[in-house]
């Protein structure tokens, strides 16, 4: 913990002292905390929860002939004070970007994880899709390549080095279309595959777009363990609607049907109230229906501030 704090402090201080012409450095972050009534299956309790709050450095450094260095060092900060190790690593990499695309080395989200775009309306909260689906992996020892976009299409791949004599290399590849933020296109679509990533093979297809004032999303996923067991078929549906420039209503349903095992589902509703471009208040209710385990329920209000 002390080492992580020192590294983070040194990185931030160094960013402020870099020569103005050396690089484009952005310090960014997000504080997201909620007050919630939680029931993990053992009874209701009240908690203050930090929802993947973070701080980081990122930027580019132009070299020559359209070639640039790109880098990021991001850390998660548990702002509720519950963790002994309140600073942990998130995506941290360095690479090159040019006419050939982008190549990154370090710790990074896999391409399959990135392929979800913005479809998960309750990302980082209790209804985050990682709770029922495999594949939401941030991996160390990765090489990531993203091609230039051609007619809206982009190929991307992650190679995960085994880092152990008895382990196997992993791969995560995908094909994207459009803009995941739906700012430059009205539709984002992707198909991605994991092979031998954290013991699972996963196929995921996603489509997300704007229709008649609504933002709608659908995802299909198939997963199985490396030995061919633990197969699951699942899907996710999400929808949000902007009542006005400040108020957004949203809902999401996720189902995971395990072959010869449990059928699991999660249903969520929520509302966001925008105070400014950087700040919103939110509320949500999430309910998990578990076949052979205790059901789970969460009711929360919170604040998110981005800088």
CATH class: Mainly Beta
SS field, number of helical segments: 2
Shape: globular
- Going by helix content, strand content and strand pairing, the class is mainly beta
Rounded mean pLDDT is 92
Strand order of the largest sheet: 1-3-4-5-6-7-8-9-10-11-12-13-14-15-16-17
First-residue to last-residue Cα separation: 24 Å
List the helices and strands and how they pair.
Layout: H1 2-17, E1 24-39, E2 44-50, E3 54-64, E4 67-77, E5 87-98, E6 101-109, H2 111-114, E7 138-146, E8 153-160, E9 170-178, E10 187-197, E11 200-211, E12 214-225, E13 232-242, E14 247-258, E15 263-276, E16 279-289, E17 296-306
Antiparallel strand pairs: 1-2, 1-3, 1-17, 3-4, 4-5, 5-6, 6-7, 7-8, 8-9, 9-10, 10-11, 11-12, 12-13, 13-14, 14-15, 15-16, 16-17
What descriptive keywords fit this protein?
307 residues, mainly beta, Porin, 16-stranded antiparallel beta barrel, 61% strand, globular, transport, cell outer membrane, porin, porin activity, signal
Structural notes for this entry:
With 307 residues, the protein is mostly beta strands. It has a single domain (2-306), classed as Porin (Beta Barrel), CATH 2.40.160. The chain has 2 helices and 17 strands. A 16-stranded antiparallel barrel has the order 1-3-4-5-6-7-8-9-10-11-12-13-14-15-16-17. It starts with a helix and ends with a strand. One of its GO terms (biological process) is monoatomic ion transmembrane transport. GO terms for molecular function: porin activity. Homotrimer. It is a multi-pass membrane protein. It comes from Thalassomonas viridans.
């Amino acid at each position: 913990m002390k080492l992580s704090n020192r590294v983070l402090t040194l990185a931030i201080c160094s960013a402020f002292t870099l020569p103005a012409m050396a690089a484009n450095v952005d310090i960014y972050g997000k504080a997201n905390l909620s007050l919630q009534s939680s029931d993990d299956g053992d009874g209701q309790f009240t908690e203050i929860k930090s929802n993947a709050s973070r701080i980081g450095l990122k930027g580019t450094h132009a070299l020559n002939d359209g070639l640039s260095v790109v880098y990021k060092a991001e850390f998660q900060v548990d702002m509720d004070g519950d963790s002994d190790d309140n600073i942990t690593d998130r995506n941290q990499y360095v690479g090159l970007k040019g006419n050939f695309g982008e190549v990154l080395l370090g710790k990074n989200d896999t391409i399959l994880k990135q392929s979800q775009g913005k479809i998960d309306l309750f990302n980082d909260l209790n209804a985050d899709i990682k709770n029922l689906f495999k594949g939401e992996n941030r991996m160390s020892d990765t090489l990531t390549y993203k091609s230039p976009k051609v007619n809206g299409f982009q190929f991307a791949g992650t190679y995960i080095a085994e880092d152990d004599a008895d382990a196997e290399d992993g791969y995560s590849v995908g094909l994207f279309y459009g803009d995941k933020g739906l700012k430059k296109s009205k539709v984002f679509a992707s198909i991605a595959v994991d092979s031998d990533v954290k013991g699972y093979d996963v196929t995921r297809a996603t489509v997300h777009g704007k229709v008649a004032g609504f933002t709608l999303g659908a995802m299909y996923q198939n997963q199985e363990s490396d030995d061919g067991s633990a197969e699951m078929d699942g899907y996710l549906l999400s929808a949000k609607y902007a009542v006005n420039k400040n108020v957004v209503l949203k809902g999401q349903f996720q189902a995971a049907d395990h072959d010869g095992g449990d059928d699991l589902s999660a249903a969520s509703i929520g509302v966001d109230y925008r105070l400014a471009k950087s700040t919103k208040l939110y509320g949500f209710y999430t309910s998990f229906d578990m076949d052979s385990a205790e059901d789970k329920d969460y009711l929360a209000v919170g604040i998110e501030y981005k800088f």
